[in-house]
Design a protein that fits this description.
Structural class: alpha+beta
Strand content: 15-25%
Helix content: 25-40%
Number of helices: 20
Low-confidence stretches: 1-6
Radius of gyration: 32 Å
Mean pLDDT: 82
Number of strands: 21
Length: 556
C-alpha cells in the first residue's frame, strides 16, 4: 500500500466472468464516507503471473524504496559484504547480565583493582561462550570472532586466563573448608544473593548435590585428585563440584573440593559455610540417597541448633527401613490422584511411620508401581525361558542375577522368594526427616530435588564445563564459576519465559539466537546493516527479556 496526497493506494484483485484482474486503486473520504477509485487496470492476473510481468513490476517499484532496494540488492548479490556478525546471544544475555546484577557485582569487587583490560567483559565473554558452545577459554577466544559482543574486541587469550585467576583467587586470611578456600567468586555469589533479598526473604530450604569433573592434565595444585568418578573415568584426576539451590530453584552458590572428597563429608561443612555466608538462621538440607550415612545424620542432629534435613533412604540396605518401615501398615494420604492428562503431576501418596524415634515418610507413585511390576515380570519371564536353554550366561547379567539362586549341582533356578520380596519396593521411596513439616510437604520438597540434579546435568552437558586444561587452582575455580554464572542466566531467562506463559525448548532458544545475524554491506557508496530473519524460539526469548529487535535494514 502507498500513500499519495494523504490518500492510500493499493493493489486489488477483482473478478469479471471467469478471470481475475489486477488493479491499482486508491481509497479516499467523501463527506465522511470512505470510497475506492480504480486508477489503473494492469490486466488479467493469470497472464501477469505466467509472463513474469507482475514480478517485474513489483521489483521495479522496490528500486524506488531505498530500504527495500538494499534488501533486493543483497538477495541479488549486488551489495559488497564488509562483515557478518551473530548478534542474538549478546542481544538477550547482555540484557540479563546487567539486570540480574552480575555485571554490577563484578564491577564492585573490581573497584579497588587495577587491570589494563576489562575483566568484567572477559568474564562475560567466557560465560556467554559457555552457554552457546562450551569448551576451553582458548576456544572462547576463537568463538568471539564471529559474534558482536560489545567491549570484547581487544581481549586476548591471556586476558581470559587472568580473569579466571581473579575469580578463583583466595581472599586474605580466609579459612579453608575441605581444602577449598574462600575466594573472590564467593563475594560475587553473596552480592548476587543480597541483590535479590528483601526484608522478608530467607533461605531455610536448600537443595544440594555434587558431581565430579575430570581434568585433561594434573588439575591444579590441590584440586586434581583420583577418586570415585561419576563420569566413569577413574584414570583421570578430578575435582568435586557441589551446587546449592534455594526453594525456588535459584542457584545460590557452587563449591569445589579435591577429587578424593566423598559426598558424605560435604553436607555439614557446606551447611556451616552457607549459614555464615548468607546470614541465615536455619537451613534444611535436602539430599539424595547417595549422600546419607548414619554418622552424618547423627552429627546433624547433635549440632546446636540441630540441622534440619530431608534425606533419601537406601531402602534395601537399611535394616530399620526394610524390616520395620516398609512392613508397617497405615492409611495412605493422597497428594496427587491418578493423572488424567500427560502433563499433570505424577500420582503421589504418603504415609508417615516412626521407627526407633526416627521419622520416616513413605511415598508411593502408583504409575511407577505398575511399571516396576511390569518390568520385573518381563525380566522373570525372559529368565525362565533362558534357563531352559542353559544358565551359565545368565550369571553375568546383573538384572537377571538378582532373581537367581544356586540349586543342586551348581545350577541356577528362579528365586521365587526374592521376586516376592521385591514387590514391596514397587513405586516406593522412603524419606527420613527431623523437621516438623507435614508429610505431604516433605515429599513434595524432596521431589523438587530434581532441580539441582538437572542443574548438575546442565553444567555437564548444555553448559559443558570440560575440557579443563588449566594448571592452577585459581584458574580452575574461575573456569567452573563461569558455568555457574551461565546457569544463573539460563534460570533467569526461563523464569521470564514462564512468566509470559511461553512454551519453549532450550535448544531452540539457543539455535534461534545463535542464527540471528547482522550483515554489514556497502550499497551505492553507503553502509547498511541487514538483519537476518528470526528462527527457532529466538522471538520468544527476545520478548521475554524486553529488548528491541534491530530493524531489518538500517544505515550506519
Amino acid at each position: 500500500m502507498a500513500w499519495a496526497k494523504g490518500k492510500a493506494m493499493f493493489f486489488r484483485v477483482t473478478r469479471a466472468g471467469r478471470y481475475q484482474y489486477v488493479q491499482i486503486a486508491r481509497s479516499y473520504r467523501d463527506g465522511g464516507v470512505t470510497k475506492q477509485q480504480t486508477l489503473l487496470s494492469l490486466g488479467r492476473l493469470d497472464v501477469l503471473q505466467s509472463s513474469g510481468q507482475l514480478d517485474a513490476l513489483l521489483r521495479s517499484g522496490v528500486r524506488l524504496s531505498e530500504r527495500l532496494a538494499v534488501i533486493d540488492a543483497q538477495a541479488a548479490g549486488e551489495t559488497q559484504a564488509v562483515a557478518v556478525r551473530r548478534i542474538g546471544p549478546d542481544l538477550v544475555f547482555g540484557r540479563l547480565w546487567e539486570e540480574s546484577g552480575i555485571a554490577s557485582a563484578l564491577r564492585a569487587v573490581l573497584r579497588d583493582r587495577r587491570y589494563e583490560f576489562d575483566v568484567e567483559r572477559a568474564v562475560y565473554l567466557t560465560t556467554l561462550h559457555r552457554l552457546f558452545a562450551s569448551g576451553s577459554d582458548r576456544a572462547a577466544e576463537r568463538w568471539r570472532e564471529n559474534y558482536r559482543i560489545a567491549g570484547t574486541e581487544g581481549l586476548a587469550l591471556h586476558h581470559l586466563y587472568r580473569a579466571m585467576a581473579f575469580l578463583g583467587e583466595p581472599l586474605a586470611d580466609a579459612a579453608t573448608v575441605l581444602g577449598s578456600p574462600r575466594c573472590v567468586k564467593d563475594r560475587i555469589e553473596e552480592a548476587l544473593f543480597e541483590s535479590r533479598r528483601d526484608l522478608f526473604s530467607t533461605v531455610d530450604l536448600v537443595f544440594f548435590d555434587t558431581t565430579s569433573i575430570y581434568f585433561e592434565g594434573r588439575g591444579g595444585e590441590t584440586l586434581g585428585r583420583y577418586g570415585h568418578s561419576k563420569d566413569h573415568r577413574p584414570d583421570r584426576r578430578q575435582m568435586i563440584v557441589g551446587m546449592a539451590l534455594d526453594a525456588e530453584g535459584w542457584p545460590l552458590c557452587c563449591e569445589m573440593w579435591p577429587g578424593n572428597t566423598t559426598d558424605v563429608k560435604t553436607l555439614l561443612p557446606v551447611m556451616a559455610r552457607m549459614k555464615q555466608r548468607f546470614c541465615v538462621r536455619q537451613i534444611c538440607i535436602l539430599a539424595d540417597r547417595g549422600m546419607i550415612r548414619e554418622e552424618t545424620i547423627r552429627e546433624m542432629e547433635e549440632s546446636d541448633p540441630p540441622v534440619r534435613y530431608i534425606l533419601g533412604v537406601r531402602m534395601r540396605r537399611q535394616k530399620e527401613v526394610s524390616e520395620k518401615v516398609l512392613t508397617s501398615h497405615g492409611a495412605w494420604q493422597e497428594i496427587h490422584p491418578e493423572r488424567t492428562h500427560s502433563k499433570g503431576p505424577a500420582p503421589l501418596k504418603v504415609r508417615e511411620v516412626t521407627a526407633a524415634a526416627h521419622r520416616y515418610i513413605v511415598c508411593l507413585n502408583e504409575e511407577e508401581r505398575r511399571k516396576d511390576a511390569h518390568d520385573r515380570a518381563a525380566i522373570v519371564e525372559h529368565l525362565r525361558r533362558q534357563l531352559k536353554q542353559g544358565d551359565k550366561s545368565l550369571v553375568g547379567n546383573k538384572g537377571y542375577r538378582r532373581f537367581l539362586k544356586l540349586e543342586g549341582e551348581g545350577h541356577f533356578a528362579v528365586d521365587e522368594d526374592r521376586i516376592k520380596a521385591e514387590e514391596r519396593f514397587d513405586g516406593i521411596w522412603v524419606l527420613r526427616t527431623n523437621t516438623d513439616y507435614p508429610a505431604a510437604t516433605v515429599a513434595l520438597q524432596y521431589k523438587r530435588l530434581w532441580m539441582v540434579e538437572d542443574m548438575i546435568r546442565t553444567t555437564k552437558s548444555i553448559l559443558e564445563t570440560r575440557p579443563i586444561y588449566h594448571k592452577c587452582d585459581e584458574t580452575i575455580r574461575g573456569h567452573v564459576f563461569c558455568s555457574f554464572l551461565a546457569l544463573r542466566l539460563k534460570v533467569e531467562l526461563e523464569k521470564r519465559l514462564r512468566e509470559r506463559g511461553e512454551e519453549w525448548e532450550w535448544a531452540e532458544v539457543l539455535r534461534g539466537l545463535d542464527n540471528l545475524q547482522e550483515v554489514e554491506a556497502r550499497f551505492r557508496e553507503r553502509r547498511y546493516l541487514l538483519r537476518s530473519a528470526l528462527v527457532g524460539h529466538a522471538r520468544k526469548a527476545i520478548r521475554a527479556v524486553g529488548v528491541a529487535v534491530p530493524p531489518t535494514v538500517r544505515e550506519v
